[in-house]
Specification:
The chain is an alpha/beta fold. Helices cover 41% and strands 13% of the residues. The protein contains nine helices and eight strands. The strands form two sheets. The protein has a six-stranded parallel sheet with strand order 5-4-1-6-7-8. Strands 2-3 form a two-stranded antiparallel ribbon. Strand 4, helix 5 and strand 5 form a beta-alpha-beta unit. The chain starts with a strand and ends in a 9-residue tail after the last helix.
């Protein structure tokens, strides 16, 4: 097999929580007098919560403060268990990858508190990953390559032997900058945009990765 490791983005790839963090950020910004819209956040997906919230705040002339992120997470943790949506077949996919000898990692621009809230809420054991890399582990988040390079380093795998699975344009750019192939999931952007950004291929659902790699694939019920 060409790859020795798979590095997964989290939001939009392993779990569907973009609408949850967006709702929490909107409530936080409303407390500061900003009535943001869901579409305001789309350009900042995958860049980490400082940029996700701060970019929208700046659009409305509000100076960003890190306390806004902390408040957003406070709100988020009260709603994530009820509002998060799961993608089919993720635990089974991860088990298949590990059985095939592939190492696995999460490479998310989100803070670790969000990673550790999302995965259990979606029924995904953190034990299915060899390492979790989050936004707090690096100075420069996506589209910088730092997250993916750190994940590869922790795995002990060369960048050229890693496949990144992403849903965001910023994540594809980060993977390319890290010297890694990127397979995109069309959960957040149209396939044409993902390919134009440099994705090697596009799948509609994450569980299809196994078949794309030539491994046994069982469609979830």
């Amino acid at each position: 097999m060409k790859y020795r490791a798979v590095i997964f983005d989290m939001d939009g790839v392993l779990v569907d929580s973009e609408h949850v963090i967006t709702a929490a950020a909107m409530r936080c910004l409303a407390e500061h007098g900003v009535q943001a819209r869901e579409e305001d956040f789309l350009p900042f997906r995958g860049t980490g919560e400082d940029r996700f919230i701060g970019g929208v705040a700046a659009k409305y002339g509000l100076a960003y403060e890190v306390g806004m992120k902390h408040r957003t997470y406070e709100i988020y943790l009260t709603i994530v268990d009820q509002e998060i949506q799961t993608y089919p077949g993720i635990p089974e996919l991860l088990t298949t990858l590990r059985a095939a000898g592939l190492r696995t990692a999460v490479g998310s621009s989100a803070d670790l508190v969000k990673v550790k809230a999302n995965l259990p809420a979606a029924g995904i054991s953190t034990g299915l990953f060899d390492t979790l890399v989050s936004g707090g582990d690096v100075t420069h988040k996506k589209p910088a390559p730092d997250l993916f390079l750190l994940a590869a380093s922790r795995l002990g795998i060369a960048s050229a032997d890693c496949l990144v699975v992403e849903d965001a344009l910023s994540g594809i750019a980060a993977a390319r900058a890290a010297g890694m192939d990127c397979l995109a999931v069309s959960s957040s952007f149209p396939p044409a945009e993902l390919r134009a950004a440099g994705a090697l291929g596009v799948i509609s659902q994450t569980w299809q990765l196994a078949g794309w790699l030539g491994l046994p694939e069982a469609a979830p019920a």
